[in-house]
Every structure is written in C-alpha cells, then in structure tokens.
Design brief:
Growth Hormone, Chain: A, single chain, mainly alpha, 81% helix, 420 residues
C-alpha cells in the first residue's frame, strides 16, 4: 500500500505509541522519586499531594487551548512544540530547590503534556479510517500504561544509582528527540505526505470520517457548554481518572506502606496494574472496532465503557478489602484494566461528535478528567488525614464508577455537539 510496503498510517501509530510511553514515563517518575524529593526538600505528604495536583491542574487547564491549537495549526507543529516544552520542564524538575519551585515545574510540565492526546485525536481524525479508530486509540493509550509499568521498577533502579535529579535530566532527552523526528517526518494530512502511496491515500480519504458540509467551521464555547454529549463525556472521564490517578500518584506509596515493602518490591508490584491497563486498552479497542464493523455504532462506544466502569468499581472495592499484597494488586489490576477499557470508546466518541473540532472536544473531556486527577492527588492525602484511613476515598471511587456506567447509557456518538 505504500512505496516501502508498510502503511504510513501504521508508522504514524507506532510514533504516537512511543510518544505515549515517553509521556507516562515522565509523568509517573515523580511517584518513584517521592522519598528522595520529600527528604531533600523537607516536604510532608500533604505538600507532596499538592505537587501531584499541580501537574494535574496544569494538565487540565490547557486541554481545550491545546486541542484548539492542534485543530487550527495542525498536530505536526503543535505536538512538536508541546513535547519539546514538557521535556524542558521534566529537566527543570530535577533542578527544583523547594516546594514552590517544584510545584511550578510540575504545573508547567502539565501544561506541556496537556496537548499530547488532543493532538493525537486530531491526527486520528485526518489519518485513521473510522473502522480502525478503536484499536488505534487502544494502542496509543496502552503505550502510556506500558510506560508507567516500565518507569516504576526501572526508574527506581536508576534513581538508586544516580539520584532523582539526574534521572529527570536524562528523561528529558527522549522527548526532545521525539519532537524533532515528528516535525521532520509527519504531515497534517495524508495528501501532504510524500511517502504515502496512492492506494493507501485513497483508502484513508474514502474511509476516514467525513466533514459535514453544513457545519460551521467555528466551535463556540456555547456549543461546548450546552451539549449533553459533552457534559456526559466530561463526567465519565472525571470518574475514570479519579480511579486511574490513584495508581499513577499514590499506589506506590500506599502499597509500600500498607504491606511494608522495600522500594524496588513496591515498584514491581505497582507496575502490574499498568500492564492490566494496557490489556484493557487492547481489549476495548478491538471490541470498539468489531462492534462498529457490525453496524452498531452507538453500542461500539457504550458497551466497552460500561463493562469497564463496572469492572473498575468491583476491583476498587475488593482492593480495599484485600488482606495481603497479591490479591490487593490483582484487584487493583482488574480496576485499572476496567478503567482503561473506557479510554478507547471515550476518545473515539470525542472524534465522533467533534469531527474537525476533535482536538478541542477531546481536550474538553480530558480537562474534566484531569480535574478528577487534581482532586485525587489531594483527596487521598486529606481524607486519610481527616478520617484516619483511606476507606472513604476508595468508596467515593466506587460510586463514581457506577454513576459513569449509567452516564454512558445516555451518550449518543452519532449526534454532533450541536445536535445533542
């Protein structure tokens, strides 16, 4: 289908898959570095919670602007720029000297990372046929989970050898390299790419989502804020991130303390849920595409997400009740597998209803989701301090997952933002 026999769009997915790996290695390393950071900078658990939430706040606030930038200027320039920016703040994290400087670095790091998935969503709108959208989303998000799984044990070993500051300096180089390669190789539309063959180009143009000629080229805030589809997507993604961000921010600390483990042991155990997340993304992505090919567009989005949220609710509840590390980690893995089953339908849904505004639409959803991450970073530490245990945090997570499953029964991917 291409001059070299390997479709260009597949090479593109490999590139975004590796971007997702880099993103989550950079993001999750902060939890591994907790002991070194809190010791060197004299921070309490509550203050470290603010460090985690500073990232989530920056990540949430810049979702819509970053998505709108990708829609307007194209994901080639925007993704290259934001990856280079977040890599710079990854390096600066290693130079922090107190709470304020570290919080500022993580906030601006979050601003940079905010554009990654909305930018990828805009790539999908132009490059990926609709019947391949589910598995492509699953592959991309599984990269993030594999990145986190790699980071927890590997970064633990690296930090043990060279310290947390130098580790962040080294990590920054990978983002810079990716940004340079992406800018030189990628093009915003298949018609602009010199390496693509005529057969693949024709296939993409025929089967990608078509822009409706009657749609206004502008997406007003009023449309975003009055669409039922948009509000439902935002709520369910808030619930998904409330569960997942525990694993990204607090699981290492929680499991290490709860079961009295060494740092490397905790890193190995807490890598397992991310592998479950990768599996959840693959299962969900394949299910999304299979149901879509059967002509069940609405069900292809709803069913994987509803199954995922119910699995997440059950897994979190059983994790809370587990008395030893193995069943606890297995149930947490099930919870993250379920939570990550919601990602492919969620991002496919945003492209469905957003069309050429896929970047801004997915950014709006991801903003709400990362407000959930912001709340999680604080809620775990503060509820533990106020109540003397973390049970209330996990019960809230269970309730949100159940409500999110109900929300999906009302979401309509076949309707644009203006229509519903």
């Amino acid at each position: 289908m291409t001059r070299c026999g390997f479709p260009v769009r597949f090479r593109l997915v490999i590139a975004t898959f590796f971007l997702s790996i880099i993103l989550y290695i950079d993001r999750s390393s902060i939890s591994v570095a907790k002991e070194g950071i809190t010791g060197d900078l004299n921070l309490s658990d509550k203050q470290f919670g603010w460090i985690l939430s500073a990232f989530a706040l920056g990540y949430a606030l810049f979702q819509v602007p970053a998505g709108a930038l990708a829609d307007r200027f194209g994901p080639r320039r925007v993704l290259s720029g934001i990856v280079a920016a977040w890599a710079s703040f990854t390096a600066l994290t290693g130079a922090a000297w107190n709470l304020v400087s570290l919080g500022a670095c993580r906030f601006f790091f979050g601003l940079g990372e905010a554009g990654a998935y909305p930018g990828i969503a805009r790539v999908s709108y132009s490059w990926i046929p609709m019947k391949e959208r589910g598995i492509v989303n699953g592959i991309n998000f599984s990269g993030g989970r594999l990145g986190a799984a790699i980071a927890l044990p590997l970064v633990t070993l690296i930090m043990r050898g060279i310290g947390w500051r130098r580790t962040f300096f080294i990590q920054a180089t990978f983002g810079i390299m990716w940004a340079l390669i992406w800018y030189l190789w990628f093009r915003d539309d298949p018609t602009q790419h010199r390496s693509i063959g005529p057969e693949e180009k024709s296939y993409i143009l025929q089967f990608r989502q078509q822009r409706a000629s009657s749609r206004d080229t502008r997406l007003s805030p009023r449309i975003l804020l009055t669409s039922k589809n948009m509000w439902l997507a935002m709520f369910q993604y808030f619930a998904s991130n409330f569960t997942f961000f525990f694993c990204l921010g607090w699981a290492f600390t929680d499991i290490k303390a709860r079961f009295q483990l060494e740092a490397l042991q905790a890193g190995l155990w807490t890598a397992m849920p991310f592998l479950g997340g990768a599996l959840g993304n693959w299962i969900s992505g394949a299910l999304v595409d299979r149901l879509y090919r059967m002509g069940k567009w609405r069900l292809s989005r709803r069913l994987p997400a509803i199954i995922g949220f119910l699995l997440a609710a059950f897994g979190v509840l059983m994790f809370l009740r587990a008395a030893s590390v193995l069943p606890a980690v297995l149930f947490l893995t099930l919870a993250i597998l379920g939570a990550d089953m919601t990602l492919s339908p969620s991002w496919s849904f945003c492209v469905d209803v957003g069309h050429e505004h896929a970047g801004a639409t997915s950014g709006m959803m991801n903003m709400a989701g990362n407000i959930g991450s912001f709340v999680t970073g604080l809620a775990y530490a503060y509820l533990k301090d106020w109540t003397g245990s973390v049970h209330s945090y996990f019960l809230v997570a269970v309730g949100l997952n159940v409500l999110a499953a109900l929300a999906w029964t009302m979401m309509r991917p076949e309707k644009t933002l203006e229509e519903y």
